[in-house]
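ugh ok fine here u go
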Amino acid sequence: MSQQKEIGINEVPRIDKWLTFSIQHLFAMFGATILVPYLVDLSPAVALFSSGLGTLAYLLITRGQVPAYLGSSFAFIAPIIAATTIGGPEGAMIGSFLAGIIYGIVALLIKASGVSWLLKILPPIVVGPVIMVIGLGLAGVAINMAMYVPGTSEYSVTLFSVAIVTLGITILSAFFLKGFFGLIPFLFGIIGGYVYAYFMGVIDLTPISEAPIFAVPDFIIPFVTYTPSFNWQIAAIMVPIAVVTISEHIGDQMVLSKVVGKNFIKKPGLHRSLLGDGVATMIASVLGGPPNTTYGENIGVLAITRVFSVFVIGGAAVLAMTLAFFGKFAALIQTIPTAVMGGVSILLFGVIASSGLRMLIENGINMGLKRNLIISSTILVIGIGGAFIQVSDEIQIAGMALATIIGIVLHLILPDKEVSYGTKSMFEDDNN
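structure:
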């Protein structure tokens, strides 16, 4: 791809280029955004709509100064599955809304007292292993999707071959494709795996032919489709995850600042971007979509194209919202075999886990020191092993949430805190 002339944050491209650039961002977020609802049994169409609406809200709250696209958050996959078993998808939406409120509270605290207090309780030795838990904790989900007939324990060679072909296409796309195309390997993997699965006879196209051209997504709206009720156990499962996603948000803002060449932490301020992220998650929760988060894939598109216009990001958001109302498109997504998503997930969940390991390496964390070894080991085993604390009949703190809390507590009470920040700051104080 040829290098584009840089387009500023508030510039409006010519209409044909505007549409092209927006479609690029739509492709970049698409694969991951529909995968999350697919895994947690929510509507991909609702996820697309809520990601678009959440992105527009984010752009508004950040005063049109931060060109970021928001899509479905992978950190909440396991918590949503757990919350759904307790209170159904409606209960999971309440938990997502509460997580969004945490963003708002943290944003207010940052506005009042700065960000240093948050960084002190979230060193790389806590955040890195928790991110690893997010990926490794879902490894079993990916393998089950890849090997077994959906809803059964019946092993299928055909379905596993679909998963392996999908995985192979995804890996080859990530490794050999360059420029923008190198940023959407998961989309290529899904498409390639779908074509292979079709020729293997495991796809039924009937739902597509029967679906209407236009259809309203299956929104889950409080006081319309259900009556909300608070559940302490769901809150205990989902609210602590906001701590991890907030740290990821800060990291994304630092990377975005470097890519664009503006310090978004200072202007419009981290409190605004965090609030925008939280509001986007709350919007998704009242529509029936998974929590939203800023997408690194779209930051990659910005870095390659040098098109920083928030109007392009807004255009992608509108396209996503429009696409959600195409009934045949929603039906097409529903026909994607579980094995295809399983094949993509094998790599995707591994990448998530590896990014946590990368954080430890890039920050120069010395794993030979007892403090770091104890904190990381405890987080990994508690998070992946599925440990939980039964506080009462209704309240249970489990898995990733428990691992996060224990990791923070260990960091705060063990001596020699400075060694857990590494030789380089996880989030630099200044970006020019």
